[in-house]
């Protein structure tokens, strides 16, 4: 299929952004915190199924965004080399790839029912609206990014049939705002003529974005702390320091202009990666120790 579309494999991989699928691991959060992720092999396999369903939908969203941002990306010092911005992939080929990724996503989503498909549809509608005009509106652009992460949590709840805590949704939203404003701060401070490739950056200031980082880092840590206390599981309080370190590490990367893209920061910064990895492992052990032992047998 890739050969028939005459899209080089490297460009195909870039367009669907498999590295960015790491964001969709949030789908595992509801069953992880809900205590059902490792109860049966079927639950774990079901969540992998849901992960790929959402990932192919997000890939369609990335391609749509590339199409809308074609002209702006051509002015960006790094994004100008993207397949669509550089002209290596024609728009007709991109639209065909969107159709294929959406078809795969819908096919995988049928297993989880109408509400799961509705969440993916709302995610894609938000993505199109963001690409078309919402990304140019001050503050709203960051809210759209944060809502995308909330949709991932909701999808995980539906797929696992776990009732999601309102605190988990709030923590996700606040942390996502931190990541979104952090990315804007990095873009504004790192690139010359940054407003030419992202119009909304002309409306932001470094001081304002530093203020948002302070606000959402604090509220996210407090909300997570309340969430783990509210769970009533005494041992899980030990995961709070991991969250505190992860937030501070990301802020450090942003404010030193080392990295601001959440995906790149997670995959390339050893300190942040190790912190998130240990947080997942410790959380899983505290909540699922007995289930994990049975799961591995």
Explain briefly what this protein structure is.
The protein has 297 residues and is an all-alpha fold. It is built from 13 helices and no strands. The protein has a single domain, classed as Tetracycline Repressor, domain 2.
Q: How would you explain this protein's 3D organization?
A:
With 297 residues, the chain is mainly alpha-helical. The protein has one domain: UbiA prenyltransferase (Tetracycline Repressor, domain 2, Orthogonal Bundle), CATH 1.10.357.140. The protein is 71% helix and 0% strand. α3 runs antiparallel to α8 and α11 packs antiparallel against α13. The chain is globular and about 55 Å long. The model has no long low-confidence stretch (mean pLDDT 88).
CATH superfamily label: UbiA prenyltransferase
- Helical element count? 13
Q: Could you give the distance between the termini?
A: 40 Å
The run of helices and strands is HHHHHHHHHHHHH
Helix-strand layout with pairing:
Layout: H1 9-16, H2 29-34, H3 41-68, H4 70-73, H5 83-86, H6 91-109, H7 114-132, H8 140-160, H9 166-190, H10 206-231, H11 240-255, H12 262-268, H13 270-296
Question: What features would you highlight for this structure?
Answer:
297 residues; mainly alpha; Tetracycline Repressor, domain 2; 13 helices
């Amino acid at each position: 299929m890739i050969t028939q579309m005459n899209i080089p494999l490297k460009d195909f991989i870039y367009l669907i952004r498999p590295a960015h699928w790491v964001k969709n691991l949030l789908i595992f959060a509801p069953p992880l915190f809900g205590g059902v992720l490792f109860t049966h092999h079927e639950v774990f396999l079901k969540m992998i199924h849901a992960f790929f369903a959402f990932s192919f939908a997000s890939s369609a969203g990335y391609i749509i965004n590339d199409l809308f941002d074609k002209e702006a990306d051509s002015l960006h010092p790094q994004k100008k080399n993207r397949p669509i911005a550089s002209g290596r992939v024609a728009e007709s080929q991109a639209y065909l790839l969107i159709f294929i990724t959406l078809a795969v996503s819908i096919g995988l989503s049928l297993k989880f029912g109408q509400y799961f498909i509705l969440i993916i549809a709302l995610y894609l509608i938000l993505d199109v609206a963001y690409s078309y005009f919402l990304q140019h509106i001050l503050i709203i652009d960051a809210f759209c990014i944060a809502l995308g992460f909330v949709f991932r949590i909701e999808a995980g709840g539906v797929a696992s049939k776990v009732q999601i805590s309102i605190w988990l949704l709030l923590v996700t939203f606040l942390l996502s705002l931190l990541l979104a404003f952090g990315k804007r701060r990095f873009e504004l401070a790192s690139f010359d003529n940054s407003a030419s490739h992202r119009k909304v950056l002309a409306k932001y200031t470094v001081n304002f974005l530093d203020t948002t980082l302070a606000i959402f880092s604090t509220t996210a840590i407090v909300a997570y702390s309340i969430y783990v206390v509210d769970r009533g599981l005494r041992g899980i309080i030990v995961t709070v320091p991991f969250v505190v370190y992860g937030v501070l590490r990301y802020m450090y990367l942003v404010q030193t202009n080392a990295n601001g893209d959440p995906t790149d920061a997670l995959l390339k910064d050893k300190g942040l990666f190790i912190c998130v990895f240990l947080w997942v492992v410790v959380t899983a052990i505290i909540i699922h120790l007995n289930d994990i032992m049975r799961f591995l047998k």
